[in-house]
Amino acid sequence: MTQLDRLSVYHWLNAWCIKPVGGALVRQEPEYILLALMGSPLKKIMLCSSEKEIFSVEEQVMVQHSVIINNMIEDGSYNHEESKIPLDCVDSKTLKKVIDYCTHHTHHHNDNQEDLEAWDAQFLNVDSNGLYDLLMAANYLEIRNLLDLIYGTIKNMIKGKKIDEIRRIFNIKDHGFTPEEEEQNRKEYPHFY
Amino acid sequence: MEQNNNSSKSINDMLPPELITQILLRLSVKHLGRVKSVSKFWNNLISNPNFAKSHFELSLAPTHRCIFIPEVTIDHRSIDLDALSHATYADAAAATITKISPSPAAADNDSDPDYDDHIVLGSCRGFIALYQYPHFFVIWNPLTGSHRIISCHHIAKISDMATNCYYSFGGELLFGFGYDATRDDYLVVLAWKDEKKNQEGHFDFFSLRSNSWSSFKEDVIIPDQLKRRKKWAHSMFFNGAIHWLNHDGDYDAIATILVFDTSKRKGFLEIAVPEQVGRYYPCHLTVLGGCLALYYDKDDDDYDKSVIWVMKEYNVQSSWTSYEIPSSYFEPVCLSEDGDFIGFDESPGMSKYNVRGELLMRFDRSCN
């Protein structure tokens, strides 16, 4: 299936008015339907968020990116017919983002570096809370490249900034130093603040 | 990056300490110094002894630098070797040199300018060991400025020499600075012979972790050549062991490299050095491209030449390879990413020569 241009097949099917089937809680990629018609279903797995929402995603995509999911599939603890993988510490909003990231990087791995970096930058254009949630999810699922991307982004938020700015960016309202310690630090390194 | 500060909590409340540690581990030493003051919590994470160890081993923010301390001024310079090895133009190369605060040993302005107050004895994993008159060693971190002063006045030998003849110091004393990975400890080692007590050998060490001096329990045989050496020999920490170039400068002398493994602590190994090297003095030991290397000025011809020997495979005699640089007193500092030699020359400046001795680039080192 990787040989064929999925998008053009999809458009062809669309022209024939075959719409993807969707249930209230189960999201299915349109390709799944057309592949079912082609006779070779792409293996999908089900991920379940902390809010009990189920996301169906290509096995290949998750296996390529998440060490945790890869291990579960390899050691056979995941049964395709029945199981879903419960991810109790990842909420739906974050899980969808993570799936987006993995899917894009699998399908676009041949893109040039600049385009990928631009997509990544846009992907991470979220508020701090969203960023921390993504970091924790990527850490839990052990998605190396997403982790590196997030750490790199946070590092850039710190580099070259004055201490007062860093506190603002990371919302550190109580720095934890005694008034004497803080005064001492400011006196010794005024250019840091 | 959108900020929604009213409803966002602090990063310290949102992320578990392990993840915050991971973020901090990716900062370079330079940024860590600043970031310690952001919050007490970050300060505690960074000050944790395991943090420093992980940071070094992670090397995600590596800084390979060369510090040089010109003799006449107290202006210290730091060279970013990673950037230097990639620099393709003289301007870019010169930009890798920056000023840093002088070592604590140099800070005393009352001293006689003729005295070499701060003799650099060796370096290891970013720390530099210096001797400070009359009986102190200073372990200094040039990037953060922090330092530790170690007193050795109880070692009669040093106090004796300090009061008598300062410059004859080096001959009978072997000083080394290294790291013991198995104990996660830094060591300052000192070996000498007490001529007042029938050349009785002493081999002591100072552990930074325990903050005290002890003697090596084994009967470590201190090499004979110790007697004849003329000045402090640089100790160099490499491959888990302290290395010294033992070379007394007599014509036809045989030079060797003495090796003391800081973890095994079983005695001195000797690595032989190509015969031709023995005649040349002074000869220096260094590390280039991850290999042991020696260099000296070849002054027996009419032509200005420096020779560099690189031991491509550790402790394999046949792997010693020599290179000639058409400049006198060329001191190699690092290799470029193409394997060219970058180093100090006489101009004063720095130059880059390829392995065939062709000059590729020259730039000024009196920096920004």
UniProtKB/TrEMBL annotation, chain A:
<dbReference type="GO" id="GO:0006511">
    <property type="term" value="P:ubiquitin-dependent protein catabolic process"/>
</dbReference>
<keyword id="KW-0833">Ubl conjugation pathway</keyword>
<dbReference type="InterPro" id="IPR011333">
    <property type="entry name" value="SKP1/BTB/POZ_sf"/>
</dbReference>
<comment type="pathway">
    <text>Protein modification; protein ubiquitination.</text>
</comment>
<dbReference type="InterPro" id="IPR036296">
    <property type="entry name" value="SKP1-like_dim_sf"/>
</dbReference>
<dbReference type="InterPro" id="IPR016072">
    <property type="entry name" value="Skp1_comp_dimer"/>
</dbReference>
<dbReference type="GO" id="GO:0016567">
    <property type="term" value="P:protein ubiquitination"/>
</dbReference>
<dbReference type="InterPro" id="IPR001232">
    <property type="entry name" value="SKP1-like"/>
</dbReference>
<dbReference type="InterPro" id="IPR016073">
    <property type="entry name" value="Skp1_comp_POZ"/>
</dbReference>
<protein>
    <submittedName>
        <fullName>SKP1-like protein 11</fullName>
    </submittedName>
</protein>
<dbReference type="Pfam" id="PF01466">
    <property type="entry name" value="Skp1"/>
</dbReference>
<dbReference type="InterPro" id="IPR016897">
    <property type="entry name" value="SKP1"/>
</dbReference>
<comment type="similarity">
    <text>Belongs to the SKP1 family.</text>
</comment>
<dbReference type="GO" id="GO:0009867">
    <property type="term" value="P:jasmonic acid mediated signaling pathway"/>
</dbReference>
<dbReference type="Pfam" id="PF03931">
    <property type="entry name" value="Skp1_POZ"/>
</dbReference>
Automatic annotation (TrEMBL), chain B:
<dbReference type="InterPro" id="IPR001810">
    <property type="entry name" value="F-box_dom"/>
</dbReference>
<feature type="domain" description="F-box">
    <location>
        <begin position="9"/>
        <end position="55"/>
    </location>
</feature>
<dbReference type="InterPro" id="IPR006527">
    <property type="entry name" value="F-box-assoc_dom_typ1"/>
</dbReference>
<dbReference type="InterPro" id="IPR050796">
    <property type="entry name" value="SCF_F-box_component"/>
</dbReference>
<dbReference type="InterPro" id="IPR036047">
    <property type="entry name" value="F-box-like_dom_sf"/>
</dbReference>
<dbReference type="Pfam" id="PF00646">
    <property type="entry name" value="F-box"/>
</dbReference>
<protein>
    <submittedName>
        <fullName>F-box/kelch-repeat protein At3g06240-like</fullName>
    </submittedName>
</protein>
<dbReference type="Pfam" id="PF07734">
    <property type="entry name" value="FBA_1"/>
</dbReference>
<dbReference type="InterPro" id="IPR017451">
    <property type="entry name" value="F-box-assoc_interact_dom"/>
</dbReference>
